[in-house]
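Predict the 3D structure for this chain.
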Amino acid sequence: MITPEAKKTLTKQGYRVVGNHSVVKVCGWTGSMIRGDGGCYKLKFYGIQSHQCMQTSPSLSCANRCSFCWRGYKAPVSKDWKWEVDNPEMIINKSLKAHKNLLTGFGDNKNPNHTAHEQSKTVKHVALSLTGEPIIYPKINEMINNYHERGISTFLVTNAQYPDEIKKLTPVTQLYLSIDAPTKKLLKEIDNPLFEDYWERMIKSLENLKKKKERTAIRLTAIKDLNMCEPEKYADLIKIGNPDFIEVKGYMFIGASRERLEKSNMPLHEDVVEFSKELDKYLDDYEIASEHIRSRVVLFAKKKFKKEGEWHTWIDFDKFHELFKSGTEITTENYLKKTPTGPGLSGRGTKDRVDAKFRHKIQKY
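Done. Predicted structure below.
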């Protein structure tokens, strides 16, 4: 799948290629945690330690060419898997090694948190969402189970074009579905899908998501002046999938997306909050639970996760791995943990960020 030229380009961009179709790259939030500048929104929302999270994907290929994606259009696109299949254990072993090597220089950063840097050498979480569509990797279930056997939690993001694969997917710690537009016409414009029945595939993916018993989430990538519209239709789609959580996350003007969109398409956190409040009007079973200003993202959670006035959106990772090892059925409710972070919306926003140092003071999570 990966040509020598593509491998050279990816390496220059900070990726490390593993085998024939997998990649690893250190997330910027890993460095942020090691510098003591705070973690990503997954830390605040779910309790993931950002410095112990590995960002990777077992597939560079994707069936969409999303306008907001940082991938270049030269990246492989395909409806089906057409390449040889690397062994999942080999991918994991080499990915962990590559990730550790990439972290080597982080301890030399100015004023690093040495405890966090040392802890970062032990991966506790894996985000299968770096690039491409991970769910089409033919041995994805074997890979997920292998991670869990090692005590590493899994977070998989799929683009809602493979409903059968979603149905067959083994339980992950948290499963994400990307819903990028409220209407069929707009989805085609934003995602540039290869499948002609892309809308029907998305609906079926949502229906299959609803049947999952583990933690599920729907992510809306909010692009200003493009898809931040018709919240009632987003709500209709969300109700089909019936996820535990909803993330409304602002589009970031980075990578190859800068060739397709304008900087003005990147909403301020205030814009994301305003749209989220409109969406909230159509979601009776949900409530805005939290936000992460630096990431321009708002979290919705089902109201049932607020127990005695306190949110339980964090993940009890020890309990999850205990359930996996015992063979007990994994359901959302049996690995919840109380959320230690503050109220839903702070009233602050992107405009409050006078400089980077002040930004970090606003929100360490």
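Residues 355-365 have pLDDT under 50 and may be disordered.
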